[in-house]
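Q: Hi! First time asking for a complex rather than a single chain. Here are the components, and I think there are two in total. Is that enough to go on?
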Amino acid sequence: MALLVQKYGGTSVGTPERIRAVAGRVARAHRRGDRVVVVVSAMGHTTDELVELAQTVTGAPNPGAEHAREMDMLLSAGERISMALLAMAICQEGVEARSLTGSQAAIITDQSHTAARIVDVRADRVRETVEKGCVAIIAGFQGVSTAREITTLGRGGSDTTAVALARALEADRCEIYTDVEGVFTCDPRRVPDARIIPRISHDEMVELAQSGAQVMHARAVDLGAREPAMDIRVLSSFAQGAGQDDPTRGTLITRDPMVHEDQVVTGLAPARGYAKLIAHGLPRGMRTPTELLVALADAGVSVDMVTEAPDGQGGALLQLTVREDDLPRVREIAAQVAARLGGGGRIEERTGLSRIALVGRGMSGRPGVYAQAYRTLMDAGVEVEAVSTSSISITLLVPSDREDDALRALHDGFTLGRPAEAMAAAGVH
Amino acid sequence: MALLVQKYGGTSVGTPERIRAVAGRVARAHRRGDRVVVVVSAMGHTTDELVELAQTVTGAPNPGAEHAREMDMLLSAGERISMALLAMAICQEGVEARSLTGSQAAIITDQSHTAARIVDVRADRVRETVEKGCVAIIAGFQGVSTAREITTLGRGGSDTTAVALARALEADRCEIYTDVEGVFTCDPRRVPDARIIPRISHDEMVELAQSGAQVMHARAVDLGAREPAMDIRVLSSFAQGAGQDDPTRGTLITRDPMVHEDQVVTGLAPARGYAKLIAHGLPRGMRTPTELLVALADAGVSVDMVTEAPDGQGGALLQLTVREDDLPRVREIAAQVAARLGGGGRIEERTGLSRIALVGRGMSGRPGVYAQAYRTLMDAGVEVEAVSTSSISITLLVPSDREDDALRALHDGFTLGRPAEAMAAAGVH
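A: Yes, that's all I need. Here is the structure of the assembled complex.
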């Protein structure tokens, strides 16, 4: 008798029909003899609608910090609705189910309203519930603070609740149900022969998530990676027919993914909306990038890639990659810092850029990967605007209008697509 | 510095604009130096919408007892939304406010999900909140059971929360804000010269509420009547301009209303949708009404008025007043009981009837009131189909198509309208 944590996102419970479908899935798992703990998000766009209500009432586009406590009270209503409805639907399947709020399930957080971190999970009540033969349904995204206040966990909150609960319960499996079939080598709408990655390591998944893969939030994966590591399976809640309850479908995020030695890249993640800024004629040395980065961090601007180089005229050249939205602020701050440092000449900008991350444990210690990525893009006629690397990833900045070409070329170049034989066997041509 | 409990119903917080208006009212009370505890219902039709969602998900027109726990979880989301929004709006007024769920405010109930009774209010956290100079906003209609489960209080729940909290806090005032200006002698849409009752006793208000006056629920008034009695003021949340913050407007429900000796009737409450059933030829004696009433109670049918009389042919005649909706069941049960008792002949029915309750402490010990009511209706040409009395009320059953005529005649006959001099002084003609 396995103990199972299943998380269902907002799309999976977006309508009464979908809630019933999830209830069927949960009930089948229960009838197979598993003890099931379900973590559920708010239905569809409930959270957005509640935020809009708050904006209308306060007359402010972004309810500020003074409203953070009440925003949490407000937003936590969302899961309360979905979890109660799901409990009723499971009950209609003839299986007992009880919903528990973040507070009832003792998801203890710090006091950072709207972006709380889980500090403890006292899962006794959840454990009692499943040991009585009930399905336990837990509100995702919310907890109770050490000051007995209702908190919400911010982005990726429900995934994080699921992984934290799975760890606290020492669950046998942690399943994240979503609206796609798993983690893909690349977005299949963009790269037609993209395939599901059957196994991926936590650290690779963190890189992919941070680089824009939407399927699961980096924060939750990171929590799963901590000792003792928790395997996480990502799979679709919309699967139907034979195989829909196959526990090996989707993607397993695991500590030891047993990748082939020759598999260098595991997946690609693209993200649009970047810009590049190049400041010329700055004083050389560490002080220039340091001051600029500190000033940007103080302004809350996150900088993606930084390159410093001589500008060929005795000064330094500093190249920054930032979100396009941040460009006006970055321009202003760069000019201020340059003026203060007594240097500063021309500032060049380039907008309409995309970031492509190549992620793979297999690239660690293989210097050729960098070169191969460059050559692949050169052969495809795509200009690389910037590049940065970590031990398991390479991030390339390319013009957004060439993003799809770059993705397909890299997907091909690193043989991420389904092998020809496998595709033929599967009837794909 | 007075401690004030203010309750705002669903209509009063039905839109963002109305929430802001309520926030203004609360903030003004706070600035006048009062400590304010607000009890709030769910916005407008939120509760109905949540019930509909539950119906769709369960596929059942009335989610049954097996869903009661989850219905409470679901419905309690409603106040969570309104109270958080109201707290933000009050904060925008420059006054600190904190919302507390029924559970956080320690509204302790029994374990009867969807119709829980308050068993205790441990108001420490509410008291601490107002003593810190914050407005405390409490979710109406909900509590936490002795088994640590979320419960809702059923009909009249938010009013009951307000009165229970006012009692627990020993509040100086308990104000029930609603969408009308107070308790009227009769519905002013039906009887043009109906006026606000400035003071009414708890027991009269209970009678009026039970007889169909919508303004406040009998259960909450009844709680206010218990020793030590809590005065309750009913007033409009939509009042504007000069006098909107006048603490003496509306109706005060109080133990000692100081009515004039000659004021016999305090108010009228009409209700439609009643029917009368007359069973002829039953065995005489107590057994007949007893068995019938027991059978109806077992079937969950509430009977309003019961008259037993000889039928003039050696048997008994039994007349029952019931809700029209219940008539088919009543007919069936009456036939079964009559057959079992070995009697039973013709069953007569009359539908399309209305109940009119005349309520007034002044009628106690005045036998003439009954006769005056009859004569008034006879003069107006309205037939009385049945009548019943209590120490402070007379209930008359009349044809619904004559209900308005009956109301106006009784309102006039018992001089409930504004005195002519007062109307002239107020510029009303």
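A: The first strand of chain A starts at residue 3 and ends at 8. Let me know if you'd like any chain examined more closely.
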